[in-house]
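Table S2 (continued). Query chain:
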Amino acid sequence: MRLFSFLSLLASLICEPLAFADEGSVDKVYHPYVLPNEREVEWRFASRQNDDGNLLTQRLAFGKAVSEHVMLEFYLVGARDEYDDFDLASYEVEARWMLTEQGQYWADWGALFEIEKAHHRDLWEATSGILIEKEFGQTSLTTNFLLAYTWGNDRDSETESEIIPQFRLKYRYRWHPWLQPSVEIYTGEDFVGIGPAFMGIQRYQGQKQLKWELGFISGLNGDSKDHTLRFVLEYEF
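Corresponding output:
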């Protein structure tokens, strides 16, 4: 019951009016699953182009399952600044908690907790939320209901709210393991975006597998240009 109450609160926050994209809205739709003894190396790339220019970010991560239900992941985040220099921007620690066994209930549930610290700046962000996935035949629906809280002396004084609700959705057709088309939706503070995406999985011996994702998300804000290209490469072993 507590999970459903928390989900209702997040949904009510996320349904507020949205208009323009913030920098962290388009990232990744998380699945609620954790494999025992899982380890992974991950690289994420995102390039957002709008009327203000191009924002390029990359994430390099290493993760390890610390129990049958909890995965910890450590990130180095790089970004290109206004001078076109690419440098380390922040550090991040992420925990994924699988709350239910796959197929145990009508949907599979998980939780996400993140904390990020800006490099050489007193700026922090903590994110938490619920991850849900439900299969319908050969299709699956994955949703992330998240809340992000920012603080620190270097926080932008023009920011209206310290708490930012986010919603992410992926509706995926599991055509083949190596090619699964989907539609993704992202919302954040003053932002809503939608677009096509693809993912694939190449399995090897044991639980070794290589995953990739590619998506192109367009912001629905009426501007002449606002789109994000995202790519993820992940090796699990």
